[in-house]
Amino acid sequence: MQHILITGGSGLVGASITKRLEAIGKKVAWLSRNPDEHSQKSFFWDPKKGDIEEDAIEWADAVIHLAGAGVADKRWTEERKKVILDSRIDSSDLLYKALKKAKKKPQAIVCSSAVGYYGFDTGEKLVFEGDPAGDDFLADVVKKWEKATDKFQELNIRTVTFRIGIVLAKEGGALKEMLKPPVAAPLGSGHQYLSWIFIEDLSRMIEYALENHGVSGIYNAVGPVPVTNKVLTQRAAEYKGKPFVNIGVPSFALKLGLGEMANMVLGGNRVSNEKIEGTGFKFEYGDLNQALKKIFN
What are the recorded Gene Ontology BP terms (predicted)? Predict the structure, then answer.
C-alpha cells in the first residue's frame, strides 16, 4: 500500500485529496503542528521552529506539499504579508532539510503554487507557464515560494508544481465568499477573467501527477474555459437560486473594505491549461455548468 504524506492536509484542497487517495486504497498521513487534534494519522512538525518528527519522511512514498497561510483570510497588514510569505518558505525549507537528511526518500513530491505568479491582472492575454512573473505582492510571494520548492529537484526527487487557479468547491473557497451577500453582483467591472478549477478535478490532477512518472516541472492547474467574474457570479447565483444584480460593486468600495487585497478580486488572469492536458490528463468537469450543477445539487 502506497503511503502519501500531506502538508496542509486539513485545508480545503488537502481534505479533498485525502478523501480521494484513501478511496483508491492509499494510506494518507498529515504533517501537523497539532497531530493529536486530527482523526487522520498525523506526524508532528512546526515549520516556524524548524521541528519535524523524524519518522515522517521515511514513512512516505510520496509527498503532497500544500502548506501556507490563507491569502484571502485576513486583511494584508505588513504583519499578515510576512505570515503569508514565511509560512510558505519556512515549511518548504523544513521539508527540504528533512528530505535531504532522510535515508529513504519519497519517489515524488507535488507542490502547490498559484496563478498569482503572473500578476494581479494580465487582462485578456492567455498566459502560459513560460510567461514572466508579475511584479506585485502576490507574484513576489509565489516566485519565492517556487524557488524554495525547486530545491527538491536537487535531491533527485521528481517534483511537480501546480499553479492553482480559483478553486470551486461546495465546502468553501471563492464561491462561498462570492455568494455571501444577500444579492450576488460582479466585482468592479466584472470583465476580469477568472481561471477556475473544480476541486474534484484538482484532486484528480494531483493524484495523476503522483502516478505518472512523465509528469514533472510546472503546470497551470486550471480548467479549460476561463470565464469573467460577471459570468461566474451570475451562473453561480442561478444555480444557488440567489438574486443577481448586474451592477458591479465599485472598485473604490472594495479598496476601502479590503485594502491592497482588493487588487486580487479586481484583476484577473486568463490562464492556459494546454501543458497539463498535453500529458494526457482529462477533465471531468471542464464545463462551468457541469461543475456548478455538481456543487449546488
Answer: cell division
